[in-house]
Amino acid sequence: MILPGATIGILGAGQLGRMLAVPARQLGYGVVVFGPEGDAPAAGLADHWVRASFEDEEAALRMAESCEVLTYEFENVPAETVRRLAQLRPVHPGAEVLAITQDRLTEHRFIQKLGIPTAPGAAVHHPSELPALMERLGSPARLKTARGGYDGGGQWRLLQPDDAPAVAFRNPPLLLEREVAFERELSVVVVRDTKGKIVPFPVFENQHREGILRCTRCPADIGPLLHARALEIARCLAEAMDLVGTLTVEMFQVGSELWVNELAPRVHNSGHLSIEACSVSQFEQHVRAICGLPLREVELRRPAAMVNLLGEEEHRRLRVAGVEEALRLPDTHLHIYGKGSVRKRRKMGHITALGDSTEQALERALCAAAPIRFVAA
Ligand code: AMP
Question: Is 99 within a domain?
Fold first, then answer.
């Protein structure tokens, strides 16, 4: 057990690191974050910020020496670096989990081997393969880079093979998937401790636009059978990976089936509402898991909804407008990540609202979000 007083190292210094630092500090841990120059929302809450690129293995090793345990909030840290760090200190989730989830093709194969469905897809190495593959998989299709894609980046919708831009093939192979006509998108966040105990959060229902999460609600509008199946899939994946820490499983509901879309070995945007709506937040539960502390049973206390606050235009220095109006609404909670600059579609904050129903919670969250703007300072 790693007890309060010890230091937790977080690879990545974004908003997820910031929200992890809050319960870590509350529990009495020191926090060191690692991330490149630039905006680092987690840095203000950490004892120390190691400013270095994720490719700088020496800096990562030095950081590890000052910590008792390490984790990451950003899954594009090289798995090889994590392997080296793990020789010095425990890193949760481990390098193998990272290696599987960093590559969409490896991830797809891993999921399918467990008998869990994904969208029909195939590896593609060269644009010349697209016509035959699209013929087989159907159109429209989604072409996705195997590595490094994020928030809809590195992903193209193809109506025909010619729609694939040349830049897409800079880092082959890619994954080509049939576009799924899903009923809804769901996610399950599960946390597994060092002894193998697994505690899932309730299923979250998500809405994306242009590949980016816009809002989440909980409970999801699904029956008990699908709910149980979603949790079972997440448990099965966490066990198969021998996970310690948090895994997020994004799924499509297709009729009465669930197809896994993507895995993230970390706390997740769709789990933010757990801060106010659940008996324990995903962030505290993750800290508990990686430190060997007991996990808490998760209960949803009230129906909840989360709306992301995204940047609309670019400003190098910004001010947040509309805060006063947003804060007047009952049962709403505003989170601003403290980023120093804004770009279109950048995640700047979020609002969680609670209500007597998910509809009421969502309405409150949308009302509170409406006046918020990230404008030039
Ligand atoms: P991803 O980066 O794979 O999570 O994709 C981001 C979002 O794009 C998803 O949450 C979906 O809304 C959409 N998307 C991705 N892949 C597919 C697919 N095969 N069919 C339909 N929508 C998809």
Answer: no
Instruction: Tell whether 113 is covered by a domain.
Output: no
Backbone angles phi and psi of 349, in degrees to 5: 180, -175
pLDDT in tens, 105-139: 999 999 999 999 999 999 999 999 999 999 999 99
Does a structural domain hold residue 2? no
Same domain, 161 and 190: no
Closest CA to 240 of 73, 101, 34, 366: 101
Q: Which atom of ligand 1 is nearest to the CA of 104?
A: 3
Distance between CA atoms of residues 265 and 274, nearest Å: 17
The finding on whether 120 has its CB within 6 A of some atom of ligand 1 is: no
**CATH number of the domain bearing residue 142:** 3.30.1490.20
Please give the number of the atom of ligand 1 that sits closest to the Cα of 206.
Answer: 10
142 close to ligand 1 (CB < 6 Angstrom): yes
CA 261 / ligand 1 centre spacing (Å)? 7
Domain count for the chain: 3
pTM of the predicted model as reported, rounded to 2 decimal places: 0.97
The strand pairing partners of 232, in sequence order, are: none
Q: Is the sign of the CA dihedral 53, 57, 59, 63 positive or negative?
A: positive
**Rounded Cα–Cα distance for residues 338 and 14 (Å):** 10
Q: Is residue 115 part of a domain?
A: no
Sign of CA dihedral 344, 345, 351, 356: positive
- Would you say the CB of residue 208 lies under 6 angstroms from ligand 1? yes
| Pocket lining: 261 vs ligand 1, CB cutoff 6 Å | yes
Q: How far apart are CA 288 and CA 296, in angstroms?
A: 9
Per the CB < 8 A criterion, the answer to whether 144 and 155 are in contact is yes
Q: Are residues 38 and 147 in the same domain?
A: no
- Residue 149, pLDDT > 80, answer no
Predicted local distance difference test score (pLDDT) of residue 76: 87
Whether residue 116 contacts residue 260, with contact meaning beta carbons closer than 8 Å, is answered with yes
pLDDT per residue over 243-301, tens digit each? 999 999 999 999 999 999 999 999 999 999 999 999 999 999 999 999 999 999 999 99
Domain that holds residue 51: 7-91
